[in-house]
TrEMBL record:
UniProt keyword Cell membrane present: no
Domain FAD dependent oxidoreductase: residue ranges: 31-181
Keywords: Oxidoreductase
The keyword Kinase belongs to this UniProt entry's keyword annotation: no
InterPro entries noted in UniProt: FAD-dep_OxRdtase, FAD/NAD-bd_sf
E.C. code: 1.-.-.-
Gene3D superfamilies in alphabetical order: D-Amino Acid Oxidase, subunit A, domain 2, FAD/NAD(P)-binding domain
Protein name in the entry: NAD(P)/FAD-dependent oxidoreductase
Pfam families to which the protein is assigned, alphabetical: DAO
GO molecular function: oxidoreductase activity
Organism: Chromohalobacter beijerinckii
Length: 182
């Protein structure tokens, strides 16, 4: 069995869902958004919803950049721990960045409802330490999130094994996540 291929999963599962014509004439608009991935699409949608005339320019096909490679998990956790953000920018700003990401999950759920025919579901997310060396920083991360009322549980190795069937020295389990397939 081939476990790897050069194609993102979504490209194989859903194919090219939307094709847009080449820009072959001058257009006039208020705002040009460069790039038709998830970032450009959400910015363009927000601007258009607020009455602006927007053109999205994409040099390939829309949604064919790294957006097509996503595992479809929507988390409030960004790639930098809250503890690391706090060390760099202060705790208040770190918490507010995480809170904005958590609120974005609700906003995306609303958008999925409005668009319709979108496979959106709330889904817990598990963030585990792959070895003992990562355990302390993960535990500190969980403590800071709990201190600021983020809904997150700490799982011991026993809890991870019984609930998820694999071994890890510790994990943060958060119900505040989702999956999304358009
Ligand atoms: C393997 C993998 C798994 C991931 N899993 C997850 C996940 O589970 N959950 C999650 O939230 N995130 C995940 N991510 C991250 C997520 O996919 C990206 O953060 C997100 O898709 C970035 O979207 P984007 O619109 O900024 O970029 P892109 O989707 O890359 O879109 C940028 C677009 O801009 C276009 N462009 C660039 N320059 C120009 C130009 N000059 N003119 C015209 N067009 C231009 C590109 O062609 C591209 O289509 C994953 C990423 C990868 C690679």
């Amino acid at each position: 069995m081939d476990l790897k291929s050069g194609y993102p999963y979504w490209a194989i599962k859903n194919g090219l869902m939307q094709a847009f014509p080449k820009l072959d004439r001058d257009v006039t608009c208020e705002v040009v958004v460069i790039g038709g991935g998830i970032t450009g699409a959400l910015i363009a949608d927000e601007l258009a919803q607020n009455g602006h005339e927007v053109t999205v320019l994409e040099r390939r096909d829309v949604g064919w950049g790294s957006s097509a490679a996503s595992t479809a998990l929507i988390q409030y956790e960004i790639d930098t721990h809250m503890t690391d953000l706090a060390a760099r920018f202060g705790e208040a700003d770190a918490v507010s960045a995480y809170r904005a990401c958590a609120q974005a999950i609700d906003a995306l759920e609303g958008l999925a409802d409005a668009v319709g025919d979108v496979d959106f579901a709330r889904q817990a997310s598990l963030y585990y330490a792959s070895d003992e060396g990562d355990l302390d920083s993960l535990r500190r991360e969980w403590e800071m999130r709990r201190q600021h009322d983020f809904d997150a549980d700490w799982l011991t190795p026993e809890a991870i094994a019984s609930r998820f069937g694999f071994e890890a020295p510790g994990a943060i389990l958060t119900p505040q996540a989702a999956r999304l397939d358009r």
